[in-house]
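Late entry, written up from scratch paper. The run itself happened at the end of the previous shift, but nothing got recorded in the book at the time, so transcribing now.
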Amino acid sequence: MSLISGISLIGMGQMSGTRSRIKFADNWQFHLGEVDQAFQSGFNASDWRVLDVPHDWSIEGEFDDANPATVGGGALPGGIGWYRKAFTLDDADRGKKIFIDFDGVYMNSKVWINGQLLGERPYGYSSFRFDLTPYLKYGEEINEVAVRVDNSLQPNSRWYSGSGIYRNVWLVKTSPIYIPLWGTFLTTPEVQKDKAGINLKVKVVNKLDKAAEIEVVTKLINSKEENVKSMKSQLNLKAGEEKEISQEAEIAYPDLWSVSSPLMYVAETEILLNGKTVDLYSTPFGIRTFNFDSEKGFTLNGEAMKINGVCMHHDLGCLGSAINVRALERQLEILQGMGCNAIRTSHNPPAPELLDLCDKMGFLVMDEAFDMWKKSKNPYDYSLYWDEWHEKDLRDFILRDRNHPSIIAWSIGNEILEQWDSTGIPMVKELYSIVRELDTTRPITTANNPPSADNHLNKPMVLDLIGYNYAHGSYESFPEDFPGQKFIATETVSALATRGQYDMPSDSIRRWPRRWDEVFTAGNPDWTVSAYDHVSAPWGSTHEETWRIMKKHDYLSGMFIWTGFDYIGEPTPYTWPARSSYFGVVDLAGFPKDSYYMYKSEWTQEPVLHVFPHWNWTIGDTVDVWAYSGYDEVELFLNGRSQGTKRKQGDDMRVFWRLAFEPGLLKAVSRKNGQVVLSREVRTAEAAAKIVLTPDRQTINADGADLSFVTVKVVD
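Output as recorded:
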């Protein structure tokens, strides 16, 4: 055993009564590759690498089309990895319950403590807990956790998954009388401006060897840290018994959670035995009401609004899949800047931190469970584990996430292959019933292609929302196709673009042929795709095409664009050397593409004038100049000469000019009611003169996890 990994947990973490939740991140030992008997207590791992988790070993590898993940999985290596961690516990911890919580391990993980197998979890996106208590040592004796992660059977994903303990790990200590993992459920059955009803269900476990009479006291704390209501209950528990109680209260003039004002409350539940606190459990929540209507679409707190959402995979670009809160927060800030108000967690349960951020920042969430059911999309995907694991994975997913006010819909599947035959009918009924048993407050959907009445997932008519993947040409016939039903566009657009690459739309409107590689074979040798909004996959549309229809009709509640950010894997086409997607409105580094500003001009009230492309061409070239603006008209000047004033016609979302290139200054001016509002300039670049570095934050926390993203510009 290597003592370098041994740390003392005495005094770490935040104590709440007798409960503590300690981030179990530091000083793990890691080995890439199979190791015989590495789970054994006392195993010598002195030559293993020492690192902190979250950790993704795949992103550290080499991109290679020979990797079994294929380019669809990002062309990065998988394999088997081992993690070990040594720690000590104070003698004062004797008699406590001690658990280890994993937010996610990709994939096929097995966990041991002191040589004892605790269990396994195949699904790489599930959060799970093991009870360490029976096998622990105290005082100066060393405890050893071992985790084996097997991501060797590939391909098992249609996008880049990452490998390893890529989400956070926690050590949780409680008294023998405690609230278990995800042991509370808070709902707001009645919400009005002057009052809100609160219902809290609390599970309590007694692991003492005798009966206990306890008091359960819950305080409801608002965003100003004021106690606005208290609830008390008495409970008798036999030895080894678990019970659930309900507590009810009413809050006067509640602070409502919304996308523009995401005000949160906390329910602090205290367990008292003989007047002494033995557990304290916090449940963040928000008070809001929402509705999907077959005619009026979506309303939040009684106000109509469009769900202007994006789909997001879980990788963080060059950081891989290792979760980082600041990197997630930055993504959401960028998306919020274009008016995005919703996230679909495609196509799997997200990291808990994403949902916390959505609660805090004011994003709606469609929380999605599965990309496949029993029928496979890849040779080694989740279908192999479906029969044994799908019910537990789905239950844990709902239990973990159901207190988040940001979540307004559950998706139980994406483009499920069972939608094309009758096997989908009993399966969708089963999954629906599992979710409905655990949560009656949110609608349930599946993301379907085709989204037709003949789709076998729609045939039972149990789903609350009809989920449309693409098929934008049939949006307007939805009331006739699905009379009385409610609409959500679960996945839309699939436009493609490389930031900064411009092939003139006026030369040819380039649509993708059915053979995806033909565009690149006959197109750009550097595997770029034009950034004008005129290239899309054959099943999708341009950004303008879908939004033009979506914004017309109230019954179209909203949409989730494929995708918010580019992501590793699933390049279109699936041909090396392409290894990441082209679909994002924002690229892998976090820089917006031009379509970002179309949405910003449509989805926000902020001043917008965005003119492109760059102005570095060859004399004699004819260049298409586009401008996105939220105002009446835009006038374009080239070296001081007006090229004309343009107004958007009909439902156009841009204006454009076609100019003969000459070096110099391109200037656009937008006007409202004849008054200049904004101007933007694009200049021909001269010789590079210096490099300018601009951090997105001037100060970061000294915690080993906070980040500042630095933009590097070469300027003349």
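The longest helix spans residues 386-401.
(Scratch paper discarded after transcription.)
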